[in-house]
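Quick one: structure tokens for this chain, please?
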Amino acid sequence: MRHLARVHPSTEQRRSNREELTRFCTHCAELFGAPTAPADKPLRGRVCGNCGLGVILTCSSATLTAPRAAFLVVTADLRVSASSRAAEDVLAIPDGSYGRPLLSLLTSPAGIGELARAVIRAANGTLAPSTIPVLVASKDLEARIGGCGNPPAALLVLEPVAS
């Protein structure tokens, strides 16, 4: 798990200069404004000032659009490294989701291979979101998957399927 502590300069993340970014807490899912620190001096405030429990990460504004969303942060090895309170409620796992293999929590009608590819692509730095149907405990959901970090990971925002 050494790679979780590695911090990369934000210039390494694959994104266009015009892409809007947002910062969010990995626990309470509160949204904050776009990062303003220069790339050579990253932001140092990593713990959420609202709840004091989550880490502040950055993602594309197109991936995470609303505060208090249900989401998972997943590393390139497909393990859950964080989840919002709302995601813990949706997943209903008594011991929590931290460290669990993603594919033991979610499946997809599109196939687990397609889900895994989308997550790995995002965890490797692709910030632009993609959407894939997912199933959790007999609930039909959609996962909007985009990159987040720093360090790089995938952000899976879980939402009910639009009727």
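Residues 20-160 form a domain with the Beta-Lactamase fold (CATH 3.30.450.20).
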